[in-house]
Please model this.
Amino acid sequence: MTENGAVTLEDVAREAEVSVSTASRTLNGRTGRVSETTQARVRAVATRLGYATNLAAQAVALGRSRAVGLVVGDIPDDYQNPVMTGVFHAATKRGMLVTTAVAQTAAIDATSSAIRLLRGQRPSVIVYVGTDSSTSEGMTELAAELTHAEAEGCRVVVIGVAGMPFDSVVVDDRRAAAALASSLAGIGYRDPMIVGGVGLGQISRDRTAGFIEGWAQSGLTVPLDRVLQQASSHDGGYRAAGEILRRQPLPDVVFCVNDSMAIGLSVRLREQGIVIGRDIAVAGCDDMPALRDIDPPLTTIHLPWLEAAEEAFRLAESEERASGRCVVLEGYPVLRTSTPELTDALSPVPHTHL
Model:
């Protein structure tokens, strides 16, 4: 033990009657030349003594620590929360520690500083979760910082943004939104409105464009004045409902580009006596778990963000060192009772709601 009482790797090796290098390989996951019996004995001793790996020493010895640097735009965030959950699950399964940095890409200096702090920890992997396109403000500077990390031996994977010089995992938001529009048109809806999310960047644009394209596939059009923009939050959806209420007649269905906006919009409509699923239909996107408990349950688009995180780690662990690979995952619409078939439930609202 050291003077401050911390158990050292040497203590573990001595108690387990193995060399320090064998104890190190076992506890650092490099067990190829260590028998299972010896591994079990070393781990049992480490547990009994309360040994914790010195990540700083590990980073010096191996060049990398068993840590993951996670960079997100905001916490909490309805888009990034499920992605973060997936990253934590995938890292925990691999016995890795996650360090999270919050950085708005357009805030170039702050973002660069956050990446440098992560680089200083010598993580094995940095995962960047984004909502903008690869050409948005600040992305060039971000790519430069992440390129330095890769040059130092760290693997970089991007979730949500295609076209950067790194391996990436994206979900085809456009195609999924088109599938939802096609499904809604197929059950009788003819007069939609779309609420886009300011702050969701390219993702909002893709979901909006996809919905319009899916509607067009049914021989229908969405007029430009039927597309609103609001903050991509519960409050943004609430404000969007106010704008919709000032327009008459009401649309038969409203598509919000994320679930939080759809929930906020539904709250405002209910305050005005409008019954979701009878007087108007509402749909969102992301398939938040809480949607199953909302009355009525909200139609949405399920997106595979947990799978996206697992794919990101698979790319990071690949023996192939070339960057620029892109894994594209698919989402799909989930129709619930907030969008019933028109013949079953919807009826026009006879009076104006202010």
About this structure: The chain has three domains: 9-53, 62-165, 173-302.
